[in-house]
Amino acid sequence: MLPVGRSRLALAGASLAYGTGLFVAYEASRPKPPLLTCEQRRDRFAELAQGYDGDVHCDEQSSGILAWRQELVAQARGRVLEIAGGTGRNLEHFPAAVSELVVGDNCEAMLQVAARRVAEARVGGGAACCPSAVTLAVMDASALPFADDSFDTVVDTFGVCSFEAPVQALREMGRCCKPGGAAHRLNRHVDRWGCYWNRDIEGMVAESGLRVVSVQRRHLGTTVMLRCEPAKGEAS
User: Fold this and answer.
1) What digits encode the pLDDT tens for the residues 36-47?
2) Within a 13 Å sphere around the CA of 31, how many CA atoms are in the beta-carbon half?
3) Would you list the domain boundaries of the chain?
4) Average pLDDT, the chain
5) Fold assignment, 35-230
6) pLDDT for the residue numbered 125
């Protein structure tokens, strides 16, 4: 028989798992919201831009997503492209191995917040707070304005789950990436953040031609972190 303290802990853990399972089942059974167009998603994020970081920070910290951001971005190296970079929440987590960083997003208002973050980092701590060479640019993830094999690493956090054409965006990530890695995660909250948590991300990755190197899941599979490689030069 387990000691009382351990019994309570086990019961609490079981209750939490059961409650979380019910919530996910409920979410999955709800009618799916309509797919946002690129313009609708851009407009929604433009409205959220100024308060976005404050709105999501506590949730990301308590859910462990912030730690996942740090873990994923720490793997970047060389010349890096981040798509759907938004307000620049990942900037401070890129390692010294990043020689140049290009941050793209289709919402100019979000990038304006990112620009302030870069400027504040320069004043407060210099290149130690974010890569020394940072370019911010408005761009469409489904038609990236770069030549093939332009980047050593391509990063996306919570972009693929909200794109209007996610497979095409993944193909573009693979096209622009040298033999190396592209990484991405997702979450839910489509009603507010425009992110479809129940998309088959791994299926989309396979369809795009990227090869999965590793996969980690949390929150009963509704949050996924993938490391991928472009399958270039391989026989079809």
Assistant:
1) 777 887 888 888
2) 2
3) 1-30, 35-230
4) 77
5) Rossmann fold (3.40.50)
6) 56
